[in-house]
Design goal:
Blueprint lengths: L12 H6 L9 H28 L6 E6 L5 E6 L6 E5 L4 E5 L6 E8 L22 E8 L2 E7 L3 E2 L3 E5 L7 E3 L4 H4 L5 E4 L5 E4 L1 H4 L6 H9 L3 E2 L10 E4 L4 E5 L2
Parallel strand pairs: 1-15, 7-13
Antiparallel strand pairs: 1-4, 2-3, 2-5, 5-6, 6-7, 7-14, 8-12, 9-10, 9-15, 11-12
Length: about 250
């Protein structure tokens, strides 16, 4: 919000014509009122920013990561430009990622850690368990469009949804209720020290598809990637400016 001040400047026609505008001196009251207006503007802007921070108002597009599970989830996010960020979300908690006024989030992924630790200490951009989890993937702000998808190409470990704020854009989800029964050869079932399980998509990880195995993945979660080139039914588009919610255990 900008606040501007208006000052009344009295000068006779002779004074204005005799002195070029670039050299004309204004009355002291003009500078006093202008200074007060500038101070008011700065104060108003400062109060607005403070209010925005304290109330959680976003300055642009946002992606909200929400844990709907009855247990805590270690959520991880990563983009091309940044290191992995970890959010420890208790049951029912959420974390808002503010993308700012530019609304750009390139090659971003969100996933649930199966070890409780998103990154390897001292190794930038190295994930401990990204390849053991299903992913929510985004490219936001690409020539006015957002691209988003769910991917089981590497593995599956937890139910997820992506819900755009725009009703004209499709919400997508993938939940496999009984991972142990689903994860049959040639896939691999892993049980981690945390107690969580991953079903490794063997053909998807190997870059093979479509196969009988990847077709089972597609049958379980039609809207999610089952192998690398499963684009036709797995990539979704929305106009830039849309907000998104990624939810675990929808």
């Amino acid at each position: 919000m900008l606040v501007t001040g208006h000052a009344s400047v009295e000068a006779s026609p002779i004074e204005l014509s005799a002195r070029p505008s670039c050299l004309r001196r204004e009355p002291l009251s003009f500078y006093r009122h202008s200074s007060e207006a500038m101070a008011t503007s700065r104060l108003s802007l400062g109060l607005f920013l403070l209010y925005s921070i304290s109330t959680g108002i976003a300055t642009g597009c946002v992606v909200k990561i929400r844990n709907r599970c009855p247990f805590s989830v270690t959520a991880c996010s990563q983009t091309q430009q940044q290191d992995i960020v970890q959010y420890d979300l208790r049951a029912g908690a959420s974390q808002t990622v503010d993308l700012g006024a530019t609304c750009i989030w390139t090659a971003a992924v969100v996933y649930a850690s199966v070890t409780g630790k998103c990154a390897v200490t001292g190794i930038p951009n190295a994930a401990t368990d990204r390849n053991l989890a299903n992913l929510a993937e985004f490219t936001i702000g690409s020539n006015g469009l957002d691209f988003y998808d769910l991917s089981n190409v590497n593995a599956y470990t937890i139910g997820m949804t992506i819900s755009p704020s725009s009703e004209s854009c499709k919400s997508v989800g993938c939940t496999i209720d009984d991972i142990s029964s689903f994860c049959q050869p040639n896939n691999v079932l892993l049980t981690h020290l945390s107690g969580s399980q991953s079903c490794i998509n063997t053909d998807g990880t190997a870059g093979i598809g479509p196969t009988d195995s990847t077709k089972l993945w597609k049958s379980a979660c039609y809207d999610a990637y089952s192998y690398n080139f499963d684009d036709a039914t797995s990539t979704f588009v929305c106009p830039t400016g849309t907000d998104y919610e990624v939810a675990f255990c929808p």
